Amino acid sequence: MPIQLQCACGQILTANDDQIGFMVRCPQCGASLPVQAPGMLQPNYASPQTPPLGAAVHAPTFMPDNLRSPGLPPCYLIFSVEHARLSITFDVSAALQNFAEGFAKKARKKFDVQIAPTAPDGAAAVFVRLLYVDEGNRWLRYFLALFAGKTVLEIDGEMRNAAGQRTPFHETHKGSVGVFGGHSLGLLKVSGKYLGGKLAKKLMKMG
């Protein structure tokens, strides 16, 4: 039975029952949406309000040459940031770049990791959608340590190996430890690197 999804941009998508639990990409804006069974709440990750002044995030566009492995099978990273909820007052793009580099550092012995807008069939790929970023509160982190003011980096998406096997994921990492509470961007960069490495390990286990 066909399942209808509505993207935050307004586009209506149709998916099949066998796609439940996986992601589909909106042909209009490129965002990735989770396919859920009829009757389940379809989350809308579009921000309900204008992001705070100074908030910005851009998808990574390049992989440093020292993290490439030409000659090995390619693995493509595809990022979607258009509808992320941002509770930040600065440009957090560096956190996603750290994600890409953390992924490549773990995967470069098996893959030539590349950043691309799409991935061809028959190649490993990771579709990463940024859901939510929160800079937290540095002073709460300083005075209450592990109990409050944490930064938050939340993503979801789908991994696909070269054989076409697909595995959805949803990951959140929170940062709380740093000198004088830790600089928010620094903690978010640590989160990005951690999540990138974690997903690389999962992909390599898929074969």
Descriptive account of the structure:
This protein is α/β, with parallel strands linked by helices. The chain folds into two domains: about 1-40, no CATH class; about 50-205, Double Stranded RNA Binding Domain (2-Layer Sandwich), CATH 3.30.160. The protein has three helices and ten strands, in the order E-E-E-E-E-E-H-E-E-H-E-E-H. It has helices at about 95-105, 140-145, 185-205, and strands spanning about 5, 10-15, 25, 30-35, 75-80, 85, 110-115, 125-135, 150-160, 165-175. The strands form three sheets. Strands 5, 6, 7, 8, 9 and 10 form a six-stranded mixed sheet that branches. A hairpin with a 6-residue loop joins strand 3 (about 25) and strand 4. The protein starts with a strand and ends with a helix. Mean pLDDT is about 85; it is low at about 40-50.
By CATH reckoning, the class of the largest domain would read Alpha Beta
Q: How would you name the oligomeric state of the polypeptide chains in this document?
A: single chain
CATH topology of the largest domain: Double Stranded RNA Binding Domain
Helix proportion: 10-25%
Give a short overview.
With 207 residues, the protein is α/β, with parallel strands linked by helices.
Task: Describe the protein's topology.
Layout: E1 3-6, E2 12-15, E3 23-25, E4 32-34, E5 74-80, E6 85-87, H1 93-107, E7 112-115, E8 124-134, H2 138-144, E9 151-160, E10 166-175, H3 184-206
Parallel strand pairs: 5-7, 5-8, 6-8
Antiparallel strand pairs: 1-2, 3-4, 8-9, 9-10
